[in-house]
Each structure stands twice: as C-alpha cells, then as structure tokens.
Amino acid sequence: MIIYTCRTKKILTTPDFIYNISNEYKMFAYNSDLMSNCGCIEKQDLVTKDVYYTYNTLVSFNNSLDNGNNNAFDLLKDYLENHPVLKSI
C-alpha cells in the first residue's frame, strides 16, 4: 500500500504556475534547486504540471486500491501513456 501524507497548504490545488503566486511559492518550497535550475518560466510551468498531475494520479491510485477497485493499475498505465515525457527521465 502506498502511504502518503501532506498538508493542504503544501499541495498544489491547480496545475498553473505562471499566473498562480501560491503555486510558485509551493513549488520553490518543494524544491528550490530544481525550480531555480529550470532556466525559464516555461520549464518551471511544465515541472509544476508534472508534480500536480503525478501527485493526483498517485492519490487516485491509492484511493482505488483502498476501495478494492481492480482498475487501479489501469489508472497508472493510462497516466504513463498520456505523459510520455516521464518515460525519457
């Protein structure tokens, strides 16, 4: 079972970075070195979207497992297929 914990004030509530000051603060608090080394705001926006969608997919996966849903692994498979950038990392 995947165990996750977080405080609401630390998680991203939307995938937006460029026009969302709250998410900018949260991402720099999450990993300031990563965000500083992105080089441009467009890359910071992409990283923010990846963090947001990955976190939400893991929460959905965990909730599906907890509920005994047999489609939990299909959810992960769909996520990986729709986010090919992760395959190159």
In short:
The protein has 89 residues and is mainly alpha-helical. 58% of the residues lie in helices and 0% in strands. The radius of gyration is 14 Å and the shape is elongated.
Strand content: under 5%
Number of strands: 0
Mean pLDDT: 80
Q: Count of DSSP helices? A: 4
| Sheet having the most strands | none
Give the end-to-end Cα distance, rounded to a whole number of Å.
25 Å
Helical fraction equals 55-70%
Instruction: Describe the global form.
Output: elongated
* Class of secondary structure makeup: mainly alpha
Order of helices and strands: HHHH
Low-confidence stretches: none
Cα radius of gyration in angstroms: 14 Å
Task: Walk me through the structure.
It contains 4 helices and no strands. The protein has 89 residues and is mainly alpha-helical. Helix 3 runs antiparallel to helix 4. The longest helix is centred in the middle third of the chain and has 26 residues. The mean pLDDT is 80.
Question: What's the topology here?
Answer:
Layout: H1 21-30, H2 32-36, H3 41-66, H4 72-82
Helix pairs in contact: 3-4
Tags for this entry?
about 90 residues; mainly alpha; 4 helices; about 0% strand
